[in-house]
Amino acid sequence: MRRPRSCALGAVPLMVLAGCTAGPAEPTHVASTKSMRIPEVVFTAAPRTIEGIDLCDLIAPDQARALGLSDQGTPIESEAGDTDVANECLWGSASAADNGRVALRVHRRLTFRTLLMQHNADESEVTWRKGHPVFNATGDSFLDCEVYVGVAPTQAFRIEARVGAGSGSDACDLAAAVADTVLTRLPVA
Fold first, then answer.
1. Residues of the domain holding 152
2. pTM for the complete prediction?
3. Which Pfam families match (predicted)?
C-alpha cells in the first residue's frame, strides 16, 4: 500500500528530495516488476486444443438449455487483421425477459501469462478449473463477467457472460459453468 511522502519543499534543492520520509520503497518499473512475478503457467491437466474447432459446437443444445442459453450459438468472424483471435460464438438468453448472453472467443498465439500482463494482473489472481488456469478480468460484478481460460501454452478462450438485472443470476457463476462445459468438450492436444 502506498503511503504519501511528506516533505517540506520550501527552498530545499530538488536533489535533497530523495531524503524525504516515505513508506517502503516503490519499484521504479512497476510493469516490469509485476511481469517478473507472473511465472509461466504450468498446466495441471493435459493441454487441450481449440485449433480447427467450431466454437458454436462447444456447447451442445441440451447443455445450453441447462445453462439458460439459447439452443444454438451464432458464429461471429474475427475482425480483419486480428491474428490472435480465431473466431467467436454468441448465445443469447433462453428467456425473452432476460437480456443475458454468453460470448465465447478464442485467443491463439498468446500465452496465459501474456493475457495476465495485458490486464495488469499477477499469479495471485489465477484460479483453476479442471486443471486449467482461469483469470477473472472483471472482479466482483454480478451482471457482467469476463473470464480467460488457458487450455494450452499458446491457446486460451475468453467467456463474456452477461445476465439480466432481474434474472437473479450471477454472470461469473454462469461464466464458470460455461468454462467447465467447454473444457469437457475440448479434445486433448
1. 55-185
2. 0.71
3. DUF3558 (PF12079)
